[in-house]
């Protein structure tokens, strides 16, 4: 019987032309996809002379989620260099914004054996951490062959994804069995991963609960609220995805709150122009965040009463937007995208409304609703009703606001548990076997 990993690798080679076409296609809206292409095949110019701790944080969400863990790793292993690998340009940009020159940043190579072997030879990581649901079969095999401990942390696996991996049971079992440890977000995630072949699985909770809103962002939020108008109600539509903005605008037509200001922040920066065009098409007077000046500048840039929306066309300011809002909708949930992280909103004290599609954050959503920090609706009509109810009821909003802090505080602790797993494995012991 043929080795399934060899068949998988053959399929990757057959997909090589598609990979280049996909990069070109995505570069139409985000030219950064054509930058550093060599890194995606194992060719790096980054230099380092220190022992390396490597974390793979795919995009924005994983990069932000790793903040507390990276801070603890830097304190625990001060002589080591943190290497962040990414898949998307926005993830890489977020890493630069959060950590500056304090970490190395490169793209993780595609899962070709030659590319992952070049990556491991170049950086020689003492150990590696994959965040959430990053199961790359050749990468895991290469780490096992070189004696590089590889951990899957903050792991989550939906029922749908588990069924998909189960179709390739032997391949998945060999890969998951090659991980040094798995730290799952929930007991359900742990059970699904164990059922697919993972070993040394524990439940540590969600690292996203350990994120602290940066004081600078909270101060920026205070400044933004002053510019928005302290007498106006501010509704934030955060991390919206394609198709959701139109549904939100439809819902807001049925909401009657005098002076209500919509702040809308698309999930992906390449869609800023598209959402601006939609607002213009709907005849909604709006102002861009980029037109309002920088934090700490003396200019006022107040939003006039006739402006009904602000387009959040900035990067890295989501905590500030949450801190400036009376109520937040967290996107990716009105349409079947699976939802986005609502924990950041609650950590900044913003009550949350979320749609029905939350399978990417199912447990966090369940806990937030149960704690009274969030309300879940089934469609845009239900969203309109809930917005009217909450924005018309200061007592209800205050109660939700007060529940946010308790919800986040009660669920913290994943960073400590994850660090215990890392140190218990002796993961920084140098290895003699190298490619």
Number of domains: 2
Number of strands: 14
Largest sheet features: 7 strands, parallel
Strand order of the largest sheet: 3-2-1-4-5-6-7
The portion of residues assigned to helices is 40-55%
Query: Helix- and strand-based class?
Result: alpha/beta
Model regions low in confidence, pLDDT < 50 over at least 5 residues: 429-435
What is the CATH top level name of the largest domain? Alpha Beta
CATH architecture of the largest domain: 3-Layer(aba) Sandwich
Summarize it:
The chain is of the alpha/beta class and 435 residues long. It contains 19 helices and 14 strands. Strand 13, helix 16 and strand 14 form a beta-alpha-beta unit.
Would you give an account of this structure?
- This protein has two domains: 193 residues, Rossmann fold; 196 residues, Rossmann fold (3-Layer(aba) Sandwich).
- The longest helix has 17 residues.
- The strands form two sheets. A seven-stranded parallel β-sheet has the order 3-2-1-4-5-6-7, sandwiched between helices. Strands 10-11-9-8-12-13-14 form a seven-stranded parallel β-sheet, with helices on both faces.
- The chain has 19 helices and 14 strands.
- α16 links the parallel β13 and β14.
- The protein is of the alpha/beta class and 435 residues long.
Secondary structure layout:
Elements: H1 4-14, H2 16-27, E1 52-56, H3 60-65, H4 67-76, E2 81-86, H5 89-99, E3 104-107, H6 113-123, E4 125-131, H7 137-146, E5 150-155, H8 159-166, H9 169-177, E6 181-184, H10 187-195, E7 201-203, H11 215-228, E8 234-240, H12 244-252, E9 261-266, H13 272-281, E10 286-288, E11 309-311, H14 318-324, E12 327-330, H15 343-347, E13 352-354, H16 362-371, E14 374-376, H17 380-391, H18 394-410, H19 414-424
Helix pairs in contact: 4-19, 6-7, 7-9, 11-14, 12-17
